[in-house]
Write a structure and sequence with these properties.
The complex is a heterodimer of chains A (about 210) and B (about 400). Chain A has about 210 residues and is mainly α. Chain A has two domains: about 5-100, RNA polymerase sigma factor, region 2, helix turn helix motif (Rna Polymerase Sigma Factor, Chain: A, Orthogonal Bundle), CATH 1.10.1740.10; about 120-205, Orthogonal Bundle (Arc Repressor Mutant, subunit A), CATH 1.10.10.10. Chain A is built from nine helices and no strands. In chain A, helix 1 (about 15-25) packs across helix 2 and helix 6 (about 145-155) crosses helix 8. In chain A, about 30% of the residues are buried. Chain B is α+β, with helices and mostly antiparallel strands and about 400 residues long. Chain B folds into four domains: about 1-50, no CATH class; about 65-105; about 130-320, Jelly Rolls (Sandwich), CATH 2.60.120.1440; about 325-395, Phage tail protein beta-alpha-beta fold. Chain B contains eleven helices and 23 strands. In chain B, the strands form three sheets. Chain B has an 18-stranded mixed β-sheet that branches. A three-stranded mixed β-sheet of chain B has the order 20-23-22, with helices on one face. The longest helix of chain B is centred in the first third of the chain and has 24 residues, at about 60-85. The chains are: A mainly alpha (about 210), B alpha+beta (about 400). The interface between A and B is large, with 60 and 54 residues.
């Protein structure tokens, strides 16, 4: 049986606990390890919240300095990424809010969780391209929070509980949403009918 | 429906779709070998989910490094600050810290600059440029020349042209020379080394992660260069024009000699060892020394920056310059310093599972031309530990 234990290194491994403790003591090397492991994820998450790249970079910097400034009260997380994301989202939202103060939007989801498919994955394969266009159309119909959930589900390694906590809904709802979205997407891909999706998006109001 | 759940809640499956590596491919090959009936369904689901590959924008490697360095610098500065005042730590907000860093940086500029107002203005080069990829030459007009080799040579010995790696030739712009607006720079990233022949025929070998700032021609009554990192100097004799190496903590004055300087900004200890002739060392912060100290052959000068302690001892200088031929020799050196050298040489990161291991004493000689895995294997063996590869660039010793 191939060894896949390394996959869990981000979660419970004592190695990352050590790194975290060293980071809290201000060890630059430990910072670099944590940074190297999560910066791509944080950056790609951040650029989905805002198109202001500099703001995302500043928020990443703020995140680490914030954690360090709070080190005496920091717990030792089981999953560093979840911990980072939680603080990062708050810091980034704060910055976005400051920029958009005039937007007195009651809804907390005023950020635009832009969802676009990687351009490199477009090929000259007509069939594939047709599917990609279809998917993009479908994703556009989703509200920002649902987009965020799908993004976190496939690209963060976070559990349903953790995703629910980040997005602010119950984990059972997250689960339901993920299953429904994926199976509807698959149906649409198979049948090539975008109309089905409208049906789906009207009937799935688990979040509202 | 049930089938999908089983797979999309399996982190091994998600990794296979979005972030596959050899391990995960092996795992699923093995799995499908045992469950051939699931093959068709699995592959179909995988290709469908792959369509959702929606990673956002990515940071370029350079930007990633730049941002990391910026944060690391701030962390380091905040550490220095906390050592000075433990109480202050609770009061300082990081916004206020940022202002403080500017103040500290200013102090450093002053050290470099205070005694020679007529020399090249080094202060503007204190901001460390990112050194990644291959060695880079920065010319006096500000243009960059990227070398295509990890081991690169640059030759200024002829007054008409600069010779790079024995072939490509850059003409020296005659008009620019008089004004000499900008000094030249040779940047050596981690994982590389460089050799530089200055206009006075002084030869400088630069170790990984180093940077030398120098004029394309020495015009004043001193030959002055600025070093960040490690270099071996073979200074051409010229009694009328002393040769001066400035580092972040001290300056070295010589007439003609051979010596090695290790002065990385991030290192706790800065060392200079003399193989031939004599040199004079003066702290930038003169108050500590009063006058300069004179180093004799086979003597090693070390400065512990944190403790502000200096020390001179007799050593075999050969082991301090082996790096320029791709060798390292350790005599009662602690593991931490050994690993640091290996990290720079191969541009990798090595962490210790047990921090106490950093003081394990290492003796031995390494040929760095070997594969890094082999080198790590030997070091681990000597330390009676094992090494684990975390990814291409990071390793752990446990």
């Amino acid at each position: 049986m191939p060894d896949t234990s390394y996959l869990n290194k981000n979660r419970v491994d004592s190695y990352w606990k050590d790194v975290w403790i060293r980071f809290k003591s201000g060890d630059v090397k430990a910072f670099e390890l944590i940074y190297g492991d999560h910066v791509d994820f944080l950056y790609s998450y951040g650029t989905k919240m805002t198109s202001d790249i500099e703001m995302v970079e500043d928020a990443i910097q703020d995140l680490f300095l914030y954690l360090l400034s709070k080190r005496d009260n920091l717990s030792d997380p089981d999953f560093v990424r979840y911990y980072l994301l939680k603080a990062f989202k708050r810091i980034l939202l704060e910055r976005i809010r400051n920029e958009k103060l005039w937007m007195k939007d009651k809804d907390d989801d005023f950020f635009s969780f832009e969802y676009s498919i990687e351009s490199e994955s477009f090929s000259h394969d007509d069939e594939k391209e047709r599917k990609l266009v279809l998917i993009e159309e479908m994703l556009e119909k989703l509200d920002p929070r649902k987009k965020e959930i799908i993004f976190l589900k496939f690209h963060s390694g976070l559990s349903y509980d953790e995703i629910g906590d980040i997005v602010g809904i119950q984990s059972s709802s997250v689960k339901k949403l993920v299953y429904r979205t994926i199976s509807s997407f698959r149906d649409i891909l198979k049948n090539n009918i975008i109309g089905l999706f409208y049906l789906f998006s009207r009937s799935s109001n688990v979040l509202n | 429906m049930e089938d999908i759940r089983r797979y999309i809640d399996n982190s091994l499956f998600i990794k296979w779709v979005y972030d596959p590596d050899e391990h995960i491919k092996d795992y699923w090959d093995f799995y499908l070998g045992n469950h051939p009936d699931e093959k068709e369904f699995l592959f179909e689901l995988k290709s469908e989910l792959a369509l959702f590959h929606i990673s956002g924008q990515t940071l370029s490697e350079e930007k990633k490094k730049m941002l990391s360095d910026k944060i690391a610098r701030k962390i380091q500065e905040s550490q220095k600050r906390t050592r000075v005042s433990e109480i202050g730590r609770f009061l300082l907000k990081y916004a206020a810290l940022a202002l403080l860093f500017i103040g500290l940086g200013g102090g450093l500029v002053y050290y470099f600059y205070q005694d020679k107002p007529n020399m090249v203005d080094f202060s503007r080069y204190l901001e460390m440029p990112e050194i990644t990829g291959k060695p880079t030459l920065v010319l006096s007009d500000g243009s960059n020349i990227n070398m295509n080799k990890n081991e690169s040579t640059v030759d200024y010995a002829s007054s008409e042209r600069i010779v790079v790696n024995n072939d490509s030739i850059i003409p020296v712009k005659k008009g620019v020379k008089k004004v000499e607006a900008l000094p030249n720079q040779f940047l050596i990233p981690y994982g590389s080394r460089g050799k530089l022949i200055l206009s006075d025929h002084t030869v400088v070998w630069l170790n990984a992660g180093s940077r030398l700032i120098y004029p394309s021609e020495f015009t004043g009554d001193e030959r002055e260069v600025l070093l960040f990192g490690e270099a071996f100097f073979e200074v051409a004799k010229d009694k009328s024009k002393p040769f001066i190496v400035k580092t972040s903590d001290y300056r070295i004055k010589v007439l003609g000699t051979q010596f090695n300087v290790s002065a990385y900004l991030g290192d706790e200890v800065s060392q200079t060892v003399l193989t031939e002739g004599s040199i004079e060392l003066n702290m930038n912060n003169q108050g500590l020394f009063g006058h300069g100290v004179v180093l004799k052959p086979n003597e090693l000068f070390s400065l512990n920056k944190g403790l502000n302690e200096t020390n001179i001892q007799k050593v075999d200088p050969a082991k301090y310059v082996l790096w320029k031929d791709g060798n390292l020799k350790f005599e009662n050196e602690d593991l931490k310093r050994v690993l640091k050298k290996i990290e720079r040489y191969y541009n990798i990161q090595i962490s210790l599972k047990n921090p106490l291991d950093s003081s394990i004493i290492i003796n031995g000689k390494l040929d760095l031309k070997d594969d890094k895995n082999e080198v790590l294997y030997y070091v681990s063996k000597v330390a009676k530990r094992k090494y684990v590869k975390l990814n291409e660039r990071s390793y752990k010793i446990e």
